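W.,

You were right to be curious about this one. When I first looked at the sequence I had no strong expectations either way, so I just let the prediction run and decided to look at it fresh. Below is the sequence, 290 residues in total, followed by the output.
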Amino acid sequence: MSGTTGGRPKEQAYESSRLRVNSSLIIGGALVSIILAIALVSFLWTPYDPSDTGEGIRLGAPSTAHWTGTDKLGRDLFTQLMIGARLAFVVAIGSTAVAGIIGITLGLLAASAKTRIVDESFTYFFDVLIAFPTILMAMLVVTIRGASISSAILAIGISGSAIVSRLCRISATRILGTDYVKAAIACGTSRPAIVFRHVLPNIYPLLLVQLTLVAAGAILAEASLAYLGLGAPPPQASWGRMLLEAQGSVMRAPWGAIVPGLTIVTIVMGFNFLGDGIRELLDPEMRKDE
């Protein structure tokens, strides 16, 4: 009896932890899935043509014909929102891929460096890149390549890779310093084998969480760039450009700014919840019974 009673608090703590994990994953997954579904549907159907000004009703209020109203040109805002969701996910996925490839590669190279000078050089490079604002990076890339979706993806991805690199380096260095890895190296195991057998399997949960946050930051960054005119050029719809175009009529037609603004908040919150859920699910330290 005593053993059963004594174990109950641990079982309750475990179940409580699982509930928290499920809550984060469910909330984050639901928010992201809703916007993702809207983006996917936009490839097959939209209420109106993105360039259709309809009956010429400008700054029209939400109605059965236009669920979220119309903009200053008479275009349907929900249609623009759907096309903007497509662009947001393209930028998020592309930027995360760029950040992951560059960040993990440089982080592993830094952690595996055999000389301290090489390791410190990588560290200083990461610090400089972290301190370099995404907007300035975007301006530099746009100056070289011109304003486009690929330029935004490249600029945001390079900026996001710095934090991924630093996290990867710190985590990989810790794993490489463990006794079992030192024993494997002493037995003649090659560096690539060490990385793929021991390092990556132990650090991927942290990297996955960080890449989830990079995706959220990429959506925010793309909206900021579009607002400043550094994102994808017209007629490609963007949530940031929707905010820019609604700025002059926000008092008369606030829905033009509220709709894209709430959508950006929703998707960013969704990715943050998703990251928290993944971290709690995969991090063994957070699943320990108290």
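Here's what jumped out at me. Confidence is low (pLDDT under 50) at residues 1-5. And, maybe more interesting for your project: The chain has nine helices and no strands.

Coffee later to discuss?

I.
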